[in-house]
Amino acid sequence: MEQFLSQPVSEFRQPLLPPNNISSFIYTNAILRSSEALPTPLLHFWTLEETVILGLKDQRLPHLATALDLLRHRHHHYFIRNSGGLAVVSDNGILNCSLFFPWHLEKQQLTIDEAYQRMVTVIQAAFPELAIETGEVTHSYCPGSFDVQVKGQKIGGISQRRNMAGVVVMLYLSINGNQLSRGELIRDFYTAGLQSTPNKWHFPDVWPAAMTNISDLLGHSITIAEAQDRLRGVFSLTDNQAFKPLTWQPQFIKYLNDERLAISKLQERLPKEV
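Above: the chain's sequence. Below: its structure in token form.
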């Protein structure tokens, strides 16, 4: 067993409704800023209803307003996260999981690759029936070198953010639902956003069949709660109470307010949903 899996971890589950969509990244950023106060590594699970999470790069789409109209007509909410990358879909079949590793609990700071590998280890241990690997799936949406894939089909993606106090490794994982439809949505989003403009920004050429979900690979449906339990069960001990005292601390509340202001201001760059 990897040594980090024998550590106790805290757990924080956050199902979010559309009016609170941006709380996902508000909490992620505030928790990372509070890493020195975390008593253990933290598992943060969160889910959204039908939403497209845009990356900063998506602002460069020459016909962004038209692309956002398409999302509205397809009954999807949207917001922009304060990081690079590209659009991803989050709905009630997508599980978002973040792992926070405070430096004060490590012998030394993890390298970028070491931090990524920890998340990969957790996913592989949670779903041992699947031959899970990483590597870019070029025609998926938001392609990257740490795409999570099985036999060339993408089931999720990993990114990370770090500061002087710790690192958070962030995963989105397609658990169930119509992944083909999600791929079609993002393909059509970029088609509407580019129209006939040459794609000098290298937005992805999305092939919907390049992605699948865990339920289809397993051959039976698995719920978000079951997926959470699998990921949590990789660790020797979890405690869903250890994190709560931090959320009452004035410094953490200040970080939440700071991040809410910053991310809310970022949303002003987009047309408001109607």
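The chain has one domain: 3-267.
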